Amino acid sequence: MAVSLRPQQPDDMHLLTGGESPFDDFGPASRPEPRPARLDADGGLAVIAGDGQLAGGVSWHWTEWGPTAGSRCPMIGIWLRPEYRGHGIGTAAQAQVVGLFFRHTTVNRVEAHTDVENVAEQRALEAAGFQREGVTRGAQWRDGTYHDGILYAVLRADPRPSLPDLVAAANVAARDGGGTTPATGALSS
Known about the structure:
Number of helices: 3
Helix content: 10-25%
CATH architecture: 3-Layer(aba) Sandwich
Radius of gyration: 15 Å
């Protein structure tokens, strides 16, 4: 399925609510205002499915691994409406965001983090070219307790999947029932 990204609009906000997944209990269910689309600050974009409808949103916040500006990197996250999960949309959207950061900024790394139980998002990230780096013990507060997570990253020099590879991965996931695991807006592709 074709996927495109665009700035979030005020009319999108009532659809970007979260809350339909066991991985969503970690903050406010919705934002009153669209996230800014700037890549040099915390922000986000709307994910538009091939049918032209708002499928969800991808966002990022900046982290630092050292004292210099060269040590900054965005950490991305995604949330998809339930009816758009399991079709490769999350994989394609996350791969597109990585491409935007590498084309329009000087970052060397783009990160993502997900719950250890969120297998669908783990598959989506790996299909989008991310590499699993390790477990972050007790890193996320959700559902009244701390949970372990998995840190993923893709480096500028890493090979990334082409569009045909992303489509093939999505087709395999759909055939294998990859979308059945609830995810924080992610697909198992």
